[in-house]
Predict the 3D structure of the following.
Amino acid sequence: MSRMSVTIADIEKLATLSRISLTPEEKEKMRGEFDSILEYVAAINKIAEHTEKDARSIVATVNVLREDTEPHESGIYTGTLLSAAPKREGNYVKVKKIL
């Protein structure tokens, strides 16, 4: 992984934009922290790119859908389903009104 580098000038510009003043020691410390953060983000991006490529190849090669077949006969499960409902009205399941 290539090393990301933040300069003291970058830190000074950020400090000016943030309206904060930093000592030379704080600037050097912030530079190191920014370098660490940028390296971490670069590592995450690299992993994300690799994962995205793998995910695309999996999606392209694996069919997760079932084969189309003849559906079951209409109404053969209606009685079973209605008998399991807590409340019913005719051939409908009765539910609480929600607004």
DSSP finds three helices and two strands in the chain.
